[in-house]
UniProtKB/TrEMBL annotation, chain A:
Gene that this polypeptide is encoded by: LOC113713330
Pfam families referenced in this protein's UniProt entry, alphabetically: Asparaginase_2 (PF01112)
Organism: Coffea arabica
Subunit structure: Heterotetramer of two alpha and two beta chains arranged as a dimer of alpha/beta heterodimers.
Keyword Hydrolase appears in the UniProt entry: yes
Binding site for substrate: 224-227, 246-249
UniProt KW keywords: Autocatalytic cleavage, Hydrolase, Protease
Record protein name field: beta-aspartyl-peptidase
An example Gene Ontology molecular-function term: beta-aspartyl-peptidase activity
One record GO biological process: proteolysis
Catalysed reactions, as listed in the record: Cleavage of a beta-linked Asp residue from the N-terminus of a polypeptide
UniProt entry tagged with the keyword Protease: yes
Signal peptide: none
From TrEMBL, chain B:
UniProt keyword list: Autocatalytic cleavage
Keyword Cytoplasm (UniProt): no
CDD domains: Asparaginase_2
Lineage: superkingdom: Eukaryota
UniProt protein name: beta-aspartyl-peptidase
EC numbers for this chain: 3.4.19.5
A Pfam family of this chain: Asparaginase_2
Reaction(s) the record says it catalyses: Cleavage of a beta-linked Asp residue from the N-terminus of a polypeptide
InterPro entries: Ntn_hydrolases_N (IPR029055), Peptidase_T2 (IPR000246)
Subunit-level organization: Heterotetramer of two alpha and two beta chains arranged as a dimer of alpha/beta heterodimers.
Organism: Coffea arabica
Amino acid sequence: MGGWAIAVHGGAGVDPNLPPQRQEEAKQLLTRCLNLGISALRSSLPAIDVVELVVRELESDPLFNSGRGSALTENGTVEMEASIMDGPKRRCGAVSGVTTVKNPISLARLVMDKSPHSYLAFSGAEEFAKQQGVEMVDNEYFITEDNVGMLKLAKEANSILYDYRIPIVGLESCGAAAESPILMNGLPISVYAPETVGCVVVDGQGRCAAATSTGGLMNKMTGRIGDSPLIGAGTYACDLCGVSCTGEGEAIIRGTLARDVAALMEYKELSLQDAADYVINKRLDEGKAGLIAVSKTGEVACGFNTNGMFRGCATEDGFMKVGIW
Amino acid sequence: MGWAIALHGGAGDIPKDLPPERRKPREATLRRCLEIGVAALKAHKSALDVVELVVRELENCPHFNAGRGSVLTTDGTVEMEASVMDGKTKNCGAVSGLTTVVNPISLARLVMEKTPHIYLAFDGAEAFAREQIDYTQPIKKAPKIAPVPEGDQIGTVGCVAIDTQGNLATATSTGGLVNKMVGRIGDTPIIGTGTYANNLCAVSATGKGESIIRATVGRDVAALMEYKGLSLEDAAAYVVEECAPKGTVGLVAVSATGEVTMAYNTTGMFRACATEAGHAELGIWSSESNE
């Protein structure tokens, strides 16, 4: 066994003009989360507990797009989704359309542990949350001023850009796009909220787990579900590894990204990093995404074809790194 | 080579003493849908068009658990879900939590073709449906169907096809698990689990949703072919026998070379298939064809 390892992410696709202060805040949050996870691992908490507690921390902080600080739907509300997977028996839980549950990842965990199903959504998920007595808040709790502003800019950008699959013309007049021509999911990168947070862990016993949580795409249609709650797309864990993805949801779904990392290790016997690279280079076509992964032997890997990804990782032998670019 | 099509009406613990009045209508529907699909393929319709029209037919039949005839949630309501995937482009569409849409599979296709998203659910999906007046006709109330007898509730439907141009597609539709919690989503709309297609194969699965999700059935059949070089038949057999507990999963699949396979680890699976080469099959249990 190679010891424990942990990786976290706060989303792929970063505005190259992100102010240094924001970059610093992001790095501090990632570091804090890593340290939380590391303490938990040192106290022998199993991987499934560690990924949950780290993602809860990321959800509670308004900096990244999950829980508080989630991107807003076209109606200005928040609809969150999350999934969690426990490698050893490939048990999983997912939720979508969550509007009043303070920590969606914990609700996903309850779906896995306390319901006969794997995935609950919208009013059914909220009802289950009430029955389970999880902490519930008003939808306003999740909405930040920053994101209200972002939504306005996103609507402005989309009114010019009707279908993001069509090449962009005329975007130069949109103030937001003037700063940077990079687009993700049809939005200029300065308004695109990187879509997710996630954590993958392998504990001292070689058990892997993965967890992902998001508010989804800024200005999304209400009811739109992305990759984060979809097992095999945004999240996957099995005996061999744990994977969490972020980026353009549609590209991640089509590429069944998280499952493919594991499938490459399982069926083609690639190493963790080779599998991660293969998936990023070959499974995304025109799409933009990133992922973090750990293997049961204590390795950690990440890959992304986006402009940056907020991430951090640490292994038992003392290695620790936090980065954006 | 050449076209090929396979369709299913659900895998599960189908009792061998299923009374004729519950068996024959389903066999008749499978036969009719197979004929419709084959005719469309012979008329050079695209695989995507073929799987959609076959699944619409299956949805309209009240004897299967999809569209009309969907099983009920614990609240006695209907919540349908479906997904479609185009092997050539890997474009996909999915819907969940539908209550008034007559043909969920068509709404899934509209999500794929008319929105920048892949998956819409519940109120958002219903709102989108109301904006699309061509394909779907929202009905005010789910039609009253007699309660399904105990033990007879399986019946997710699906269809896979390869057309005369060599393109693959898959479509799957369901009312979900009988007595499911409101808001429960199964494998059917989760791309890579209940449904998957790329340029190697197209897969539609049925059975216990939670097991199919865990085993990422659709994607795994394709991954075994791609990464381990297994044939379609071997890949499907492996997934069904090794990757999910007995009694939980069935699937139909076609490959880019026109092969067809229908595999299940349950007592039976309502199924039918045909290939341009002349092979045709319709059945419920193993090594029996019910003429």
